Amino acid sequence: MDSEQADNSEQFRQTEALLSAAMAFAVCGDALTRDDLSGPGRLERLMEAQGALMAAAGPGHRVRFTGLLERLTGAETGSMAGLMPEWADPGSLDGLRFLDVDGVTPGEAFDFRLEAERVIRAAKKVGRFAGRVTFTALEDEHSQESVFSAIKGPYYERHRTNLIEHPVVLEKEPADAISDRPALADLDLPTRAVDFYRPVPQHARYRGWWFPCPACKWPMKVSVHHSEGRDQGSAWCLYPWHEQTGATYRFEPTQGEPPVLNPVFPCGVPHGRQGELWTGCVPEVPQAQPVDGHKALVRSVWRSTCVPGLPELRLHRVLNRHLQGTGWRAELWVDGDRIDLHVAKDDGQQRKAAFPADFKDYTFVSHLVDKLHMDSGDKGNAKWLVVADHREAQVATLDPVCRGYGMRAITASGYVDEVLAAIREGRA
């Protein structure tokens, strides 16, 4: 084994250990929040999590059960600091909590787990890392690969668009026919994809009500805490950028009536190209919706399909609006999703295609860099790696890596400008 391979193996060992720890905290969250578990059942799940943490830490490092309980209920709730051995370098996740005080995985920690899973899967596929992590049936059932497998075929674009635009659906047709949400049956999804919709999650419920995020329409996290002598309710989107752009609210607890949300801070939408491509929060205060009669995408499908899909759809539509009259058109999820987007033109008997792009939405840029190395660039031969405008800071890290594989990294706004300039100047 050469030094580069050894370095990679050590890096993936660290990623795997932190992934195992993140999954252990997820097991704890499940134990704390599920209504169908008895006391012994909860204890069994917590002991399972302790075993997973010790397996991740490796021989010679003991994770005390009392220490784990302190991370679930004390001041260090959800923190990994001091829990894992030094070689795992949990300091790289300084400040990141893997559970909140309600036993729910926060947005960034959830992203860490999903992204680390992709890296480890990719490394194992190309034989770069053997590792110990095995993924449960539940995780496999809702992975990106499983979503693709469930909806692939001649209606792939329609099915994927439905998952993106309708993260919450009605269980059946409404009697009054006034809801703006379709019934699940109306989406005409393949049977395997229908199972991606489940009852509104417990963390999003308040006395029979839930609130849709104005940006993505998925149920927001709800919490009620006692502060300054009274109860105070909060609701916010579990995708951090939606929360940071305005999808965070307060409400007064109610009895029998739906609560009314009040924004924590004003929501502003930018102008210009970024405004065209904006998929953050909008100044539209959500109204309480009844839990009964609704189903929502499971969280992993929402995060891996709906959240990045919204800017993909917006990019496609904005490009086509600007391409009207040029003879060019933007095409989405080309060749069965080999690439996410390109522009094409019928020129006599020939068909021209340009700017093949792959859209990525990673919270941890190091995971995306690792994934690029595992895939030797893009498996679909995309030449552009596009990130949403709010990930602009990642471009400086990604572009040198991309160039090593014949690609370029760019923001969505930059990609639109580049495509339109090339067509206008005859370079496409």
From TrEMBL:
It comes from the Bacteria. Pfam families: pPIWI_RE_REase (PF18154). Residues 309-426 form the REase associating with pPIWI RE domain. InterPro entries: pPIWI_RE_REase (IPR040828). This is REase associating with pPIWI RE domain-containing protein. The lineage of its organism: Bacteria, Bacillati, Actinomycetota, Actinomycetes, Kitasatosporales.
